[in-house]
Amino acid sequence: MILVCDSGSTKADWKYADGVHPDGTISTMGFNPVFHKEDFIKSELTKDLLPRIDATAVNHIFFYGAGCWDSELKMVIKKPLAELFPNATIEVEHDLLGAARATCGDHPGIACILGTGSNSCSYDGTTVVDNVTNLGFMVGDEGSGSFLGKMLLRSYFYREMPAELAALFEAQFPEGKSEILNRVYNQPAPNVYLASFAHFLSDQKKHFFIENLVYKAFSEFVDRNVKKYKGHLHVPVHFIGSVAFHFSDILQVVMEERALKMGKIIKKPIDHLMEYHKGPVHTV
What we know:
Elements: E1 2-7, E2 11-17, E3 24-29, H1 38-48, E4 60-65, H2 71-84, E5 89-94, H3 95-103, E6 109-114, E7 118-123, E8 128-130, H4 136-139, H5 145-157, H6 163-172, H7 176-186, H8 190-195, H9 198-203, H10 208-224, E9 236-240, H11 242-246, H12 248-257, E10 261-266, H13 270-278
Parallel strand pairs: 1-4, 4-5, 6-9, 9-10
Antiparallel strand pairs: 1-2, 2-3, 6-7, 7-8
């Protein structure tokens, strides 16, 4: 049985296939080795994943995750998986490679992630050949949900938001400045909390102020990331993630203005990753 996972910092999608029965899908919380420890990951998987799959039947695991950018961080994910799935060969890769495989397949292109965080890479059809440095949600993550959340909060508290929009914001988030800042500075996973404000943006995306805010965020992402890759005008630029998906119309405008080739926009890459790994040359 093959088990494939696409994990962001907020949620993880798992898909399994045995070649006989219909593929199965499981959702759990997301696991990021930058924020989560091995014991926590093992505990959560034992609670939420193991009851729903025969661990002894799994012989290949392909895990693509945010934060899995070096061997030490990959081991934070790999060790608990190895303990829970003793018969499996396990491959842990950065979610960028997952994005590239899900969108580009075996063809060259640029793959971008716009979800809770953001990232991008240039892909030659086999490997990631270039990656503009990702600085995380405190310094970078342009165009992401957490970045948009920060922009929204600044526009509200700096009194830049139109009055009618501010009234809607106050009705939806009555907790006020003290509680919001407490969640950002003193509670776990502030990036996920900031990204949660993207729901408000999505609900109000037809408002000119929100449309312009998202346009600025996407423009910054494309200019600081996509346009830095060699040959960026000549290959398709693909996007995965809920932010790219829900604001695809604004993203399309940003791309067209820069004469870039829009590729696929995929909310969740898990189905595409499973199809990739069902291919005989991608199984091991």
